[in-house]
Amino acid sequence: MTESTDPLRLAEAAIFAAAQPITPRALAALLPDDADVDAVIAALTELYAPRGVNLACIAGGYVFRTAPDLAPHLRKIVELPRRLPRAAMETLSIVAYHQPCTRTEIEDIRGAALSQSTLDLLLENGLITPKGRRETPGRPTLWGTTPAFLSQFGLNDLRDLPKRDELLVEPLPAPQEISDGV
After folding, report:
1. Which of 41, 43, 34, 37 is nearest to 25 (CA)?
2. What is the dihedral sign for C-alpha 11, 13, 14, 16?
3. Beta pairing partners, 65
4. Do 103 and 42 fall into the same domain?
5. What is the domain count for the chain?
């Protein structure tokens, strides 16, 4: 690398070329020693804000994504990923919120049996992965989500999942005070 290499251009090229989100640590290793990674990311974010692609923080790293306001216009030419069946989405949601969890725990939460084909579909799509085994009789597999899950759903981290009250259609009623019959 020459001394005249612009950190902004180098970071832009690295993020564009990377198949997966590029982490700040990976950028720091690539950029000149005197480059401030946070300042470079801030500059790229500002540079791309009005453009057709934006810099997004996904799965702990940075990627270029279509500007949200343009995405509906691209649906005519860009094929969307196949929609997951309801059972797969329910299973994926349970794994995301309760990981690591076993198949039995997933079934208990769903209130229905979990078919192997549902697990296979989530595995094939790279959305879940085995995360070890529970130290109980039978040593059942523990399931967790993957970086591909974060990427597909536009999340930087599992803490970005919606909270329970954000998912409710109607807010929960306030607890009622118990009357003394007076």
Report:
1. 37
2. positive
3. 54
4. no
5. 2
- Residue 30, domain extent: 7-73
**Amino acid residing at 173:** P
In a domain, 15, yes or no: yes
d(CA 155, CA 146): 11
For every residue of 30-94, which 3-state class applies, written as one string? HCCCCCCHHHHHHHHHHHHCCCCEEEEEECCEEEEEECCCCHHHHCCCCCCCCCCCHHHHHHHHH
The answer as to whether 169 is a domain residue is: no
Q: How many CB atoms lie within 10 A of CB 110?
A: 14
Cα separation, 146 vs 126, whole angstroms: 7
Residues 137 and 116 in one domain: yes
pLDDT in single tens digits along all 182 residues of the chain: 445 579 999 999 999 999 889 999 999 999 998 999 999 999 999 999 999 999 999 988 999 998 989 888 887 787 666 788 999 999 999 999 999 999 999 999 999 999 999 999 999 999 999 999 999 999 999 999 999 898 888 888 899 898 877 777 665 555 555 544 44
